[in-house]
Structures are given as structure tokens and as C-alpha cells.
Design goal:
76 residues; 0% strand
């Protein structure tokens, strides 16, 4: 999975933090939808307690739990 093309896209802030803050650039619907999809996935994955608390010490087991959790969500 290539992370390099997504990094500049995800670093662009499209949602204003405050009510009185104005946007300096145009609102990009594609970036907003991608960011929203990623945030919803992370929030759904937090329902698995082992992922939200991170009991595992090794990164490989933690990554495997993310993959298993994603598969379970996909099968629902």
C-alpha cells in the first residue's frame, strides 16, 4: 500500500475549527469525503476493545488486529 500519494491530501485542512474562521481555499468535496470515510472507519474500529486500549506490545500483532477488525466490519 502506497502512503506517499495520500499524505499531502490528508494534511490539507478543509474543515474550519471555529465558527468565525473563514476558509482561505476552496472547499474540496473529494478530500472531505475521503477524510470523513477514514474518521468513520477509525471510530468503528474503536469498538474493538483490544484496538482502542492496545494491550499488545508488538506492532505486528497490533497490525494483525487492525486487519482482523477491518475484515469483521467488512463482513457485517
Amino acid at each position: 500500500m502506497e502512503k506517499a500519494p495520500l499524505i499531502p491530501i490528508l494534511q490539507v485542512r478543509t474543515i474550519p475549527h471555529r465558527i468565525n474562521e473563514t476558509r482561505t481555499r476552496k472547499f474540496d468535496k473529494v478530500i472531505y469525503r475521503l477524510r470523513n470515510r477514514i474518521e468513520r472507519l477509525i471510530n468503528r474500529m474503536k469498538h474493538f476493545r483490544s484496538l482502542s486500549v492496545r494491550y499488545d506490545k508488538s506492532a505486528t500483532i497490533y497490525r494483525a488486529l487492525w486487519i482482523i477488525g477491518a475484515m469483521l466490519l467488512w463482513l457485517q
